[in-house]
């Protein structure tokens, strides 16, 4: 596989006199560890829920390792393809490729190695279905989102965000070996959570995206409309999260947590929308407040997913 931005650089050397620690840090950075953390947070709790208790430790470890390597591979491919725009954006210009800490060829080989190893780990120590779902999510993120959607449509992260929903399916199939409506509900929660989460961040960095011609919604629409869209998706997200209660027959912990967390999230989304009316001043709109709150919301919601079967078997 190769991207459209082939680099004539063929030395295979790192820029400057980078030491081993810098090299390791550069390769780790290609995997976007903070993104991986969030993906694993939607994988492991679903395993607890599917097991209706504590799943086998070996299975959890294998799923986490396979999922980590797969997500890291997708992120590394993304870094290779997007290195031209990453050099121009404040949020991304300190990544390994814009800083020439890693060559594009080396990063591509690294991404491919991670993809192969992750697929083998999941296929051998988890099951083929989970391995296939993981590989499919990786391919969709690279080919669907990075190479097709991201630079062409304001709906880029709406549909591109599908790749980030797969961990809920993978966590479930790792335990059960089959799909059902339960993980599909959680898949949908993450799907509807992604636009409010990403658009809040994109609003903060909309000038960066505009400068590199990436048509994120906050680039082509004013802040008020972005706020309105965030509120709409937030309502659907909260409604979807409550569906797990009747679909899965949960105990009381999950629906109570989902209702409370959802109410707080909706309050934050409406507040941001209100602040965006009549102004484009980011210091007034404060989109990063919602962005950080969205991380907390998803984390606590999936903690409730894990705790519910432990407390009410």
List the helices and strands and how they pair.
Layout: H1 20-30, H2 33-41, H3 44-51, H4 57-81, H5 83-86, H6 104-125, H7 128-149, H8 156-160, H9 166-176, H10 181-204, H11 206-211, H12 217-220, H13 223-248, H14 253-276, H15 282-285, H16 287-311
Give a description of the structure.
The chain is flat, with a radius of gyration of 20 Å. The chain is mainly α and 313 residues long. It contains 16 helices and no strands.
List keywords for this structure.
313 residues; mainly alpha
Mean pLDDT rating = 92
How would you sum up the major sheet? none
Please tell me what the overall shape is.
flat
What is the SS-derived class? Answer: mainly alpha
Q: How would you summarize what this structure contains?
A:
The protein is mostly helical and 313 residues long. It is built from 16 helices and no strands. Helix content is 73%, strand content 0%.
């Amino acid at each position: 596989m190769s991207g459209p931005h082939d680099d004539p650089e063929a030395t295979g050397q790192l820029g400057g006199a980078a030491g081993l620690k810098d090299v390791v840090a550069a390769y780790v950075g290609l995997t976007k560890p903070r993104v991986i953390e969030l993906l694993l947070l939607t994988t492991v709790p679903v395993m607890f829920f599917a097991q209706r208790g504590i799943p086998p430790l070996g299975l959890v470890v294998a799923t986490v390792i396979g999922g980590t390597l797969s997500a890291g591979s997708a992120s590394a491919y993304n870094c290779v393809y997007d290195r031209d725009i990453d050099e121009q954006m404040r949020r991304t210009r300190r990544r390994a490729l814009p800083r020439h800490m890693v060559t594009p060829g080396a990063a591509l080989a690294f991404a491919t190695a991670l993809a192969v190893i992750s697929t083998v780990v999941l296929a051998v120590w988890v099951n083929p279905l989970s391995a296939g779902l993981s590989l499919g999510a990786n391919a969709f993120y690279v080919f669907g989102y990075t190479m097709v959607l991201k630079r062409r449509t304001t709906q880029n992260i709406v549909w591109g965000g599908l790749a980030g929903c797969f961990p809920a399916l993978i966590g479930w199939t790792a335990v059960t070996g089959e799909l059902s409506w339960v993980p599909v509900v959680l898949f949908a929660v993450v799907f509807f959570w992604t636009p409010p989460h990403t658009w809040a961040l994109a609003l903060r960095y909309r000038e960066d995206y505009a400068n590199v011609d990436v048509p994120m919604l906050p680039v082509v629409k004013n802040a008020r409309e972005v706020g309105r869209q965030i509120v709409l998706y937030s309502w659907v997200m909260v409604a979807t999260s409550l569906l797990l209660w009747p679909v899965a027959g949960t105990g009381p912990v999950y629906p109570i947590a989902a209702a409370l967390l959802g109410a707080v999230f909706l309050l934050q989304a409406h507040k941001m929308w209100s602040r965006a009316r009549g102004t484009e001043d980011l210091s007034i709109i404060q989109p990063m407040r919602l962005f950080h709150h969205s991380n907390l919301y998803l984390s606590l919601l999936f903690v409730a997913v894990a705790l519910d079967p432990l407390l009410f078997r």
